[in-house]
Amino acid sequence: MNKLLYGVAYYDEYMPYERLETDIQMMKEAGINVVRIAESTWSTHEPQNGVFDFTSVNRVLDAMYKAGIHVIVGTPTYAVPTWMVKEHPEVLAVTKNGQGKYGARQIMDITNPTYLFYAERIIRKLMENVKDHPAIIGYQIDNETKHYDTSGPNVQQRFIKYLKDKFETTDALNKEFGLAYWSNDVHAWEDMPSTVGTINGSFGAEFSKFQRKLVDDFLAWQVDIVKEYRKEGQFITQNFDFEWRGYSFGVQPNVNHFTASDPFDMTGVDIYHPTQEDLTGIEISFGGDVARSTKQQNYYVLETEAQAFSHWTPFPGQLRLQAFSHVASGANMVAYWHWHSIHNSFETYWKGLLSHDLQSNPVYNEAKTIGADFSRLSSKIMNLKKKNKTAILVSNESLTGLNWFKFKYDSELNYNDIVRLIYDELYKLNVEVDILHPGSENFEDYSLIIVPCLYVAPDELLDRLNQYVEHGGHAIFTFKSGFANEHVKVRTTSQPGIIEKACGVNYQMFVEPKNVKLAGNTYEVEEDKNRVHTWMELLTPTTAETLATYDHPAWGDYAAITGNEYGKGYATYIGCIVSSEMMSGILTQALKRASIWGEEQEVNFPLVIKSGINDEGKTIKYVFNYSFELQEIESPFSQSIDLLSNSIYQKGEPLTIKPWDFKILEMK
Amino acid sequence: MNKLLYGVAYYDEYMPYERLETDIQMMKEAGINVVRIAESTWSTHEPQNGVFDFTSVNRVLDAMYKAGIHVIVGTPTYAVPTWMVKEHPEVLAVTKNGQGKYGARQIMDITNPTYLFYAERIIRKLMENVKDHPAIIGYQIDNETKHYDTSGPNVQQRFIKYLKDKFETTDALNKEFGLAYWSNDVHAWEDMPSTVGTINGSFGAEFSKFQRKLVDDFLAWQVDIVKEYRKEGQFITQNFDFEWRGYSFGVQPNVNHFTASDPFDMTGVDIYHPTQEDLTGIEISFGGDVARSTKQQNYYVLETEAQAFSHWTPFPGQLRLQAFSHVASGANMVAYWHWHSIHNSFETYWKGLLSHDLQSNPVYNEAKTIGADFSRLSSKIMNLKKKNKTAILVSNESLTGLNWFKFKYDSELNYNDIVRLIYDELYKLNVEVDILHPGSENFEDYSLIIVPCLYVAPDELLDRLNQYVEHGGHAIFTFKSGFANEHVKVRTTSQPGIIEKACGVNYQMFVEPKNVKLAGNTYEVEEDKNRVHTWMELLTPTTAETLATYDHPAWGDYAAITGNEYGKGYATYIGCIVSSEMMSGILTQALKRASIWGEEQEVNFPLVIKSGINDEGKTIKYVFNYSFELQEIESPFSQSIDLLSNSIYQKGEPLTIKPWDFKILEMK
Amino acid sequence: MNKLLYGVAYYDEYMPYERLETDIQMMKEAGINVVRIAESTWSTHEPQNGVFDFTSVNRVLDAMYKAGIHVIVGTPTYAVPTWMVKEHPEVLAVTKNGQGKYGARQIMDITNPTYLFYAERIIRKLMENVKDHPAIIGYQIDNETKHYDTSGPNVQQRFIKYLKDKFETTDALNKEFGLAYWSNDVHAWEDMPSTVGTINGSFGAEFSKFQRKLVDDFLAWQVDIVKEYRKEGQFITQNFDFEWRGYSFGVQPNVNHFTASDPFDMTGVDIYHPTQEDLTGIEISFGGDVARSTKQQNYYVLETEAQAFSHWTPFPGQLRLQAFSHVASGANMVAYWHWHSIHNSFETYWKGLLSHDLQSNPVYNEAKTIGADFSRLSSKIMNLKKKNKTAILVSNESLTGLNWFKFKYDSELNYNDIVRLIYDELYKLNVEVDILHPGSENFEDYSLIIVPCLYVAPDELLDRLNQYVEHGGHAIFTFKSGFANEHVKVRTTSQPGIIEKACGVNYQMFVEPKNVKLAGNTYEVEEDKNRVHTWMELLTPTTAETLATYDHPAWGDYAAITGNEYGKGYATYIGCIVSSEMMSGILTQALKRASIWGEEQEVNFPLVIKSGINDEGKTIKYVFNYSFELQEIESPFSQSIDLLSNSIYQKGEPLTIKPWDFKILEMK
């Protein structure tokens, strides 16, 4: 599409009374130019086994087309109808908690052939029904697809075959997974136990990887079906979601977004985040960076919050701030879950642009201004391209590995906490990043790659990281990186294993810090922020320089953080978990050394700067104020024009941003 | 009975050695004039299937009769014998956790015909055995009956028929419950899923209502059987209990006391409450007000604590204080769970009047004084009638609705917290209340009706509340009232829906308060008590006056509390959860406006005043001191005589109440 | 063995590459003279049903023998192979959570005949294979054996027979367990319900006792098999473990160590404990005292931590301190779990002497000094005998009883907390103790017996305790002692029942203390340590003197702690839970009265003194410094020589102990 899309999820099926024309009129007034339909309502479209009814789809398509609003049609397969489960209870996934119960969405076994038979049929019937409709700009496959921990006997059976293909002999498997421990080894494939009760992290993690592959396969299968029908110019997308902690927190454990996005034309995501006093924009930025990086192109935000819950209803100004933050990260669509609030069932309090009264309201009124600005500025601000010099390497395998092997058995911190510890500080320093993954082949595009907790990694990946440094790259590795191979088998070398080459440091011991700080307060933080917690490695530099040591009566001789010149590059190794403030200091040091530090880094959160190059080749700079306080800085940019007000700013001139407001500056 | 009853539960079956004559002697000395027997000991009376043995019942009846102690006989149906479950494991209720295991009481499916067959047989056998015994003054049906979340296939089957009767078509059901959401709708009754896994609050709440109806039906069925045998003058009662939070906290979620009490002659309840430093009398008062209101008559406290646990053993004086508090609320019986402490099993530490040594002790000795005073003052203090001007409207449906739709997904506050937030402050202001329910037809009897969180309500009820105000009533509605209809379907009007008429205020948005207070500290509380928490609605008055606004940078223009003249009456609307101290201020304001405020409201907790009119038409005033400190006030009453000491007090004369002590004043 | 053993668990099976010769070389350098093998690796030795392969056992035996390292061979029965569970899923224990899942160790039903058949076969095959090997000094039966809560139908069936044998009639059972309560009584053995759902503490506790007996039986059965093969001079041991709170905390609930150790020649235990800043040596001492007391002889520490987790990696010096602490308690072996760290599976982070790189490291280097000193000092410090005057009486039955009847329903304190409250203070006062149990017959060996929470006890035991005092013994009883009989039936006398005779005190009431302290701060502790919490009994002395009373407005007249001269002895009764500091005061008072107090009690923790008599009849005194601070005292000992440095100390001379260091003094 050659314009910014501003959208809503729309459910004619959920409406308490006839609203279609009224809704469309109100959408038009708000500048809504796309709606997403159909993906949750299989039972409406197939009320009984083999009985199809696409009335609601068709009437919405027709009405939207008439109104000039585009439509994305979703396949309805992520919520199964009652009749199916009544006829075939076996479609419900068997997980470690046993077989599921009917009620929620996302409860089926995505490998069950009965489910797949019905899913294929409803997709084909739907596609046959809609395929020629001119309102449709694209299709969404399923929704927030994950594996739902399906792990019943049929899945275990497949997993055995997967292991056979991979290891050929049980002896090879026993050796690599260390199954001899506690008599877990198998000497005949027939003896293979279910993974459900396993205490072997290699076995368990391999199963998780296998489960993520099931998601890849399921999505690719659906894409292939839909491709048979879609017309030229129509895209196929998914709505990926992130690790959920009551909001979109981090890397998704149950899907590998980098492989799962392969068959799609366009990556779509949903991003939900704290708001009101807690709005920082970090999740908007993080989710956007992941989405943009999956296919190294722009992306769609298929769902984000409008009013949502009592704790997410935005302050005046925040809805605008949020929408333009998505676009500033490279989104070409911002769509709300959902148009209207629902009057029954689970998401009654997950409110849409319209409240339950379905009338105009302050949030809807603010949306109108967004729609108008999106429309007016579309050609200037869509298709924003990034040229980031910094990247973070994330790994689903390491996330899983660290769930098996926590910092401490009762540790609440996990992989995503460390990713976010780093990401958040970069965000606050206005350093934009791309996200790399173990399959990425473009390490050399970056001046600095940050590698948090790469606990699980094949030799090949670590060798490539060494090479990256050797060839002049800057890298930051944290604790636990390089520890285990791709099968979560701990390396038998001294640690951090292969990357010792680049890092010039090793260790044999790691301890739990109690009242430990960095000696001399290396990063000059407030006294109570000079805190090492949860995990510390006792580092011994070989060729590295010591950047920080521990302040501790027993461990004071060991290094905490080191830096090493290797080939033409430089590798920093962080041996312990530090406070946010100290992490900021470590990153600052590395950014400066990697020549990424600039004037924009001197501007501090709550002011957030985002950049990109538009279709005209012009650089666009956003400056967001994520606070209740008016912010004033001297413009760090060469001459620029604010696309919202047409004001022109010279470098050094005062730039004033109102609370929860922003500027969109086009560089001359 | 024409006297105050002072009683104990008595279990000859549990006694470690022959005690009957000794026990009766000690009971007589304590003034115990009624015992409750038989309701937990089915296995004693029917040791094997079809083998009956009422020896223990008969000997206790005979001995009590001889001693002039009355007996209440309970049907033993709430604890099933081992032989039954061994022969018919299917009598155990299937709940969302699967089928129960034998051990505890209250584990059977109260709709299971096998259970009902045996239950009917033991009831009839028992009744045939005892029906002519002159010791018996009444019968108790079962005990603390609830539905035990029975929700197995047979119960689901019945529920479908219930839904068919109610909605006739699946389409009507789908529409009203919003089942289209996430493909939950049914297009054939055969497809109806179990409610056990449902995520639809309307479906789930309707099932809870249906489960409460099962309790009504079960109790009515037993009453009908017992009525075939009971003699004239013998009452039939139940022992209802309350929401349990380690003590009797609030409205019972699993029984509708107002409908379930219908077939009974007399409402009986059990009330357990914190004591020692934490004794306030609030639960005694609350439970009593509910019990008295079910049938608008006096009631029996069939169980309350004697020594109970280490944390409930009363300080000297408290047992007396508690007993007379029950009577002051309108109880005509105060009975202890239980006479003697038990030497084995689950309630070993739920101690009775006698400790495990079965000897006289300080608590028992205090009971003696109660028995003596009850006997001496019976005609003066029993049958106390109330003429309360204030009532609180409670709703089981709203309680259930708010469990489905909490203030926030992880909110710990629920319906009863709000009921108690109001009740407790009224109590401390010495405002006595009646309890209304959606079926009450006597709204007009009250000057002020307080309506906490009436989240689920049919139009008809809300219309009646509007009328009540229009005709001159005063009402206080809190947040969330009027939000959803009787099927937990949110109203599609602006909120608070129908009661906007009386309240003159509406809102579309609600948010979670963080650091919010009322602007200007409207109710003049200590600074740290000026706190709005958990829930706030952004109110816009239409015809109402604003009583308070929020102190918040984004929401400061909205009203927090409003008042509205409507017809001849006045409606206060509270849009947010406030501290206890602020609630007291709001109530004070409304009580004054409704002309309920009087001198007794100037007397503050820990002094508690309770009033009533006795059979002679005399007004009795109790003044309780719920504290360790001696309290002295000027008597707010016209000339009165203390029935305990015969002292006479003129208005304004000093009235001194010792710690944990009280006066019973008869007004001249 | 006539030397101190210094050992490791060694798993050739788990090694990532061929290491045997290298490992043995490194062991020799560290003075390791014993390895423990085979006990977890059934699947290696029987890779398929009936296929046996003892290659790894044999090659390790041969290589160790060649190197002069002894071997303990374990029966591999505590971790079942995959093929067995695949063929016979029924070997997995059914617990209250249903049937287990394959994965972990210790998941089988130790009464299942299929399991027993295979277990016997693998034991016999293993024994036949190794029995003549000269490297073997002993055998370990299974590992950390417990009952794993096996409670399926077959176990219930046996339990019924056990009850029949014990009670003969169901009436006797009903009476003793109080089963009439809530209709739980049985009138035919066929009606006996499973214990899994029971709410009857007597029934439940009897089942726990029965389950512990299953462990006794299982171990004795294995011992009998192994005895058929073992040669003269070879010992048979078990590796008992303790109540686990992330470390070895207290009395093991699921095994009665005193009966289970009967068939063994030698008691072996594993002891894990906090270290780093949290190292106190208390668990080393407690576990050692239990182990030593089981058979009143020296014992083996078959497992303790080397590097273990990040939170247990020892500070420099601590590994030595720990090793000699074990020996000072009477251990003749100190062995590590384990030699090398594992590269996969559950215990990857439970690190051994070698880290994952299998190279020399600081902890291993410290082990070398231990091995050398053990070897050099063996004849002086092994076989240490104790002549303790103080003993603590522990009771598995009381532990179970207090789990059924907690101080309060939500109390977090349990039996072991009270045991440790006492034990820890004795430890800090340098009072060494033996551990008695209900079957002990040597009460008279002690001057002071401390009896914490002896909640469950037969008359006979209490009578013996009375006699002990009458004959001149000193005893301290705490609250709850004597309360219930051996079937957890509360005594019907006034409390504390039978021991009232010795204690001269009784009570009928007990309450939960809120803001209660001892009047007059009896034990002169800091104000905030004068705290009575969780439980208080309202004591009335009969013949006793009051040692302390409560400071409380209602309970101030009752005694809190009393002392009573009875016969020639003296009994202290503690009626409430007090702070550690107050407990120390109470113990000091009693120790002085019992003439146990001496100069060594004036030396305070973190200095810990341990004593014993060696084979030469010399007294050995250890002085440990459990702190980061250098400690200096005047030697309280007559002339002594430090066996490590050969320095000689006269009484009163300064004795300086470095941080985490110690002296071994031989008295002249």
Automatic annotation (TrEMBL), chains A, B, C:
It is an enzyme of class 3 (hydrolase). The keyword Hydrolase applies. It comes from the Bacteria. One of its GO terms (molecular function) is beta-galactosidase activity. Gene3D superfamilies: 3.40.50.880, Glycosidases (3.20.20.80). Its EC number is 3.2.1.23. Residues 389-596 form the Beta-galactosidase trimerisation domain. It holds the Pfam family Glyco_hydro_42M. This is Beta-galactosidase. PANTHER family: BETA-GALACTOSIDASE GANA (PTHR36447), BETA-GALACTOSIDASE YESZ (PTHR36447:SF2). Belongs to the glycosyl hydrolase 42 family. Keywords: Glycosidase, Hydrolase, Metal-binding, Zinc. Residues 10-375 form the Glycoside hydrolase family 42 N-terminal domain. It catalyses: Hydrolysis of terminal non-reducing beta-D-galactose residues in beta-D-galactosides.
